[in-house]
């Protein structure tokens, strides 16, 4: 099994000085990030479709073996309950496909208010018509989605049920494809002003998840993404997950002046 571990997003000013060198600007963050981790979950696509120029830039900024997973816009998952969204979804697919071979899983993150009871029919109709040449995962935040009708359809179409460690997602970890998609989300108790350092001890939970993934022999790839809200510092959570998974942990200290990296803030 291939295990790829990264964070949800990369553009955080609070990471400057702890993950990125002092003086790092927003434009410099993605190239630096991609030197440390092999994958990232794009959070910004949840709020809207990026420009084609932006996606081309992301592609150009990152090495050939880098992987982007992207949230599907909330206009599809939150605002329309999968009704009348073919146009915006196709536009999203057309744009994000500019990542080429660097495009990984597309994540549908559903809110608790979107349930099988009120949206099951439209959801089934939608997933039965989406392009089959992409990899998908769905994060359900209402327990009534976990029924045989939905689970069987997900298996038929090899769409992953996203596993998520957060207060809103039921503790139900179905395997409906040969891919695992795990999100370490947490709650919203850690403020953005505190990002950049571990604020909550989560090592026991991280170890539990790492060991759970290793129990599955019939999985081709596991994608794991950590959110700042999980423990306070997404990169540190990701590195801890690597350690518990027997993967060489990411080392970004060499980029930081205080760790002997000099005062360099450019890439080369």
Looking at this protein, list some descriptive labels.
268 residues, alpha/beta, TIM Barrel, nine-stranded parallel β-sheet, 9 helices, 30% helix, globular, disordered C terminus
What CATH calls the topology is TIM Barrel
Assembly classification: single chain
| Radius of gyration computed on alpha carbons | 18 Å
Helix content: 25-40%
The CA-CA distance between the termini, in Å, is 33 Å
How does this model look, in words?
This protein is of the alpha/beta class and 268 residues long. The chain has one domain (2-259): TIM Barrel (Alpha-Beta Barrel). The chain has nine helices and nine strands. The chain has helices spanning 26-33, 52-61, 74-77, 86-96, 116-127, 148-156, 203-214, 228-231, 234-244; strands at residues 2-8, 39-42, 67-71, 103-109, 135-139, 160-161, 163-165, 179-184, 221-226. The protein is globular, with a radius of gyration of 18 Å. Mean pLDDT is 92; it is low at 259-268.
């Amino acid at each position: 099994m291939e295990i790829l571990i990264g964070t949800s997003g990369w553009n955080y000013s609070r990471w400057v000085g702890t993950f990125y060198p002092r003086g790092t600007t927003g434009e410099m963050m993605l190239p630096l990030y991609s030197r440390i981790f092999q994958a990232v979950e794009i959070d910004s696509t949840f709020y809207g479709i990026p420009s084609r120029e932006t996606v081309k830039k992301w592609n150009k900024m990152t090495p050939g073996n880098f992987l982007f997973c992207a949230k599907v816009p909330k206009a599809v998952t939150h605002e329309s309950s999968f009704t009348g969204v073919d146009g915006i979804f196709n536009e999203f697919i057309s744009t994000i496909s500019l990542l080429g071979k660097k495009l990984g899983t597309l994540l549908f993150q559903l809110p608790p208010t979107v349930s099988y009871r009120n949206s099951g029919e439209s959801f089934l109709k939608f997933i039965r018509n989406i392009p089959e040449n992409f990899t998908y995962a769905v994060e359900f935040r209402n327990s009534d989605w976990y029924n045989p009708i939905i689970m069987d359809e997900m298996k038929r179409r090899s769409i992953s049920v996203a596993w998520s460690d957060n207060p809103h997602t039921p503790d139900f970890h179905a395997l409906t494809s040969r891919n695992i998609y795990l999100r370490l989300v947490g709650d919203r108790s850690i403020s953005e002003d505190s990002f950049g350092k571990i604020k909550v001890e989560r090592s026991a939970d991280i170890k539990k998840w790492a060991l759970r993934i290793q129990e599955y022999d019939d999985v081709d790839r596991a994608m794991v993404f950590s959110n700042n809200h999980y423990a306070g510092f997404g990169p540190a959570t990701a590195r801890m997950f690597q350690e518990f998974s027997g993967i060489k942990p990411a080392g970004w200290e060499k980029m930081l002046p205080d760790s002997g990296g000099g005062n360099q803030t450019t890439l080369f």
